């Protein structure tokens, strides 16, 4: 089946919201479809918050705002609370497996779907992993098409207020007579509490989006490419298809995959191709990602993408440095895995219909999806069959390590 046919089938569900009943139903259907290809398929359960984009930052900013007001008479306690919640936020943004919003948010069941084609059993080879998340996000005021270009500024203001509040509390604790910390703390507290209220309202009023582009498109491409691999394997490498749940709540599916399989996978040899939002705009490959710390992607995977795009479609494929919000590749790149992400970028650098109710099947660019399927199939053939000199050298090392 072509990627479009897989996408049509997946979009029969109204949405696939993280940790919802419909996410679980989507996992069941995807597992059945992969079993039909003859793969060894496992559904791997884990737990994840229902929402980290709204509730997590809202709790952190509420705690910071209250620490600047109610705890002002006890600055050391206020500073301690501030540092604890700030550490949780930093861990979340860095893709930590130990310190993130799971420490302060309730969790519900989710699951990954992992399909394996073993390759040549006589060769011990690390797999090629095709990864795509199948869950969907909520639409709220935060992702109104007119506000999306301002997302970095909105979150940047909130993070600046967090930093200012921490500095004011620290200065007040060390020097109670200083005059500047009080007005700075008041301004930061107002910004943080307003931001928290807007986030809470967005999480409460938000609606689950259909998710045809984000990320039905990536899942459909992964399924179509897996079928091609089954029919005409270009390498003796094993192929893994990893369809993750709960990506929209802080890459929880990718983190669960790491907890389950990192010990069995060699980060130096495993190749991971992440597919996300390839249903609109132009095909781009990220060169890395990360907000607080930027993790460059693997040099071999990037070089192959650059060379192939230059020869195959220089006007339709190209590099892109970073996204506002992370993908499933973040926790993998942070741990030195050889990874790359392909994504569709529209006008002004925005992902089309991003986290908005218009993310429907009718808005997906069918021609882009067909082109991406052909390009990515050729790309997979290139990355698993590197030039002979490179193969004799053992392959290049990732720039993320």
Key structural traits:
disordered C terminus; 16% strand; 401 residues; two-stranded antiparallel ribbon; alpha/beta; 12 helices; eight-stranded mixed β-sheet
Structure description:
With 401 residues, the chain is an alpha/beta fold. The chain has helices spanning 3-10, 21-35, 55-67, 75-93, 151-174, 181-205, 212-231, 252-261, 299-312, 329-334, 366-383, 388-392, and strands spanning 40-49, 107-117, 128-133, 138-139, 207-208, 239-244, 271-275, 282-286, 288-289, 295-296, 317-320, 338-345. The strands form 3 sheets. Strands 1-2-6-3-7-12-8-11 form an 8-stranded mixed sheet, with helices on both faces. Strands 4-5 form a two-stranded antiparallel ribbon. The longest helix has 25 residues, at 181-205. It is elongated. Residues 389-401 have low confidence and may be disordered.
Kindly state the number of beta strands.
12
| Computed structural class | alpha/beta
Distance between the first and last residues' Cα: 38 Å
Structural Rg: 22 Å
Number of helices: 12
**Main sheet characteristics:** 8 strands, mixed
> What spatial form do the alpha-carbon principal axes imply?
elongated
Helix-strand pattern, N to C?
A: HHEHHEEEHHEHEHEEEEHEHEHH
Q: Order of strands side by side in the largest beta sheet?
A: 1-2-6-3-7-12-8-11
The percentage of residues in β strands lies in: 15-25%
Low-pLDDT ranges: 389-401
What is the helical fraction, as a range of percent? 40-55%
Average pLDDT score = 92
């Amino acid at each position: 089946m072509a990627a479009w046919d897989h996408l049509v089938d997946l979009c029969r569900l109204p949405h696939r919201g993280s940790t919802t009943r419909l996410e679980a139903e989507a996992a069941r259907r995807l597992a059945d479809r992969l079993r039909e290809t003859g793969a060894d398929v496992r559904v791997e359960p884990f737990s994840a918050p229902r929402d980290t984009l709204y509730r997590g930052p809202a709790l952190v900013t509420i705690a910071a705002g209250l620490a600047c007001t109610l705890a002002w008479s006890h600055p050391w306690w206020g500073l301690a609370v501030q540092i604890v919640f700030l550490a949780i936020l930093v861990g979340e943004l860095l893709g930590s497996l130990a310190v993130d919003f799971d420490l302060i948010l309730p969790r519900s069941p989710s699951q990954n779907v992992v399909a394996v084609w073993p390759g040549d059993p006589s060769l011990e080879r690390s797999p090629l992993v095709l990864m795509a998340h199948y869950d969907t996000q909520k639409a709220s005021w935060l992702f109104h098409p007119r506000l999306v270009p301002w997302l970095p500024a909105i979150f940047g203001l909130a993070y600046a207020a967090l930093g200012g509040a921490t500095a004011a509390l620290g200065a007040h604790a060390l020097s109670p007579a200083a005059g500047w910390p009080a007005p700075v703390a008041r301004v930061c507290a107002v910004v943080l509490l307003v931001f928290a209220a807007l986030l809470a309202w967005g999480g409460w009023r938000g609606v689950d989006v259909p998710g045809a582009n984000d990320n039905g498109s990536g899942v459909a491409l992964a399924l179509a490419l897996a079928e091609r691999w089954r029919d005409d394997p270009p390498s003796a490498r094993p192929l893994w298809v990893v369809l993750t749940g709960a990506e929209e709540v802080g890459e929880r599916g990718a983190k669960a995959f790491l907890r389950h399989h990192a010990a069995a996978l060699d980060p130096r040899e495993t190749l991971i191709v992440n597919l996300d939002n390839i249903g609109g705009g132009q095909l781009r490959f990220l060169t890395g990602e990360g907000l607080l710390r930027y993790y460059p992607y693997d040099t071999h995977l990037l070089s192959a993408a650059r060379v192939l795009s230059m020869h195959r479609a220089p006007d339709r494929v190209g590099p892109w440095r970073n996204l506002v919000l992370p993908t499933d590749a973040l926790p993998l790149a942070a741990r030195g895995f050889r990874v790359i992400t392909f994504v569709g970028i529209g006008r002004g650098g925005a992902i089309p219909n991003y986290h908005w109710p218009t993310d429907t099947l009718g808005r997906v660019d069918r021609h882009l999806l067909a082109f991406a399927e052909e390009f990515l199939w050729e790309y997979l053939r290139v990355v698993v069959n590197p030039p002979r000199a490179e193969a004799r050298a053992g392959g290049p090392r990732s720039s993320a390590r």
